[in-house]
Amino acid sequence: MELGSQDYTVNAYLNKAAATAIVIYQRPGSNALTTAAAVREQLAAAALTRTAGAPSLQFLATDGPERFARVGSRFLGRTIEAQQIELIDL
């Protein structure tokens, strides 16, 4: 993981309430699959992955459910259907 000199400040809200966000930036020259694998590896190393039971996931997007489904599927390693995504207005 590398940090550059830009501002990494993030304000996250869900239904107008404060929330936690994990922001992931791709390195120049990398691809989404490599980035997704690295994220999974880091989450596992930090014991933040689920090991038993079905995951409790809720997908919320502010724009483009189809694009969110395509990119999100790469990161999760499973298919997300656009119909599973709730479009919200911040």
Briefly characterize the structure.
By secondary structure, the protein is an alpha+beta fold.
Q: Could you walk me through the main structural features you see in this protein, from its secondary elements to its overall organization?
A:
- The protein has one domain (13-87).
- 29% of the residues lie in helices and 11% in strands.
- The protein contains 2 helices and 4 strands; from the N terminus they run ββαβαβ.
- A hairpin with a 2-residue loop joins β1 (13-14) and β2.
- α1 packs across α2.
- The chain starts with 12 loop residues before the first strand and ends with a strand.
Runs in which pLDDT lies below 50 for 5 or more consecutive residues are none
> What's the tally of helices?
2
Main pleated-sheet profile: 2 strands, antiparallel
Structural class computed from helices and strand pairing: alpha+beta
> Biggest sheet: strands side by side, in what order?
1-2
Order of helices and strands: EEHEHE
Count the domains. 1
Estimated helix fraction:
25-40%
What portion of the residues fall into strands of 2 or more residues?
Answer: 5-15%
Radius of gyration: 14 Å
Q: Whole-Å distance between the termini?
A: 30 Å
Overall mean pLDDT stands at: 78
Quick one: how many beta strands? 4
Shape by Cα distribution: globular
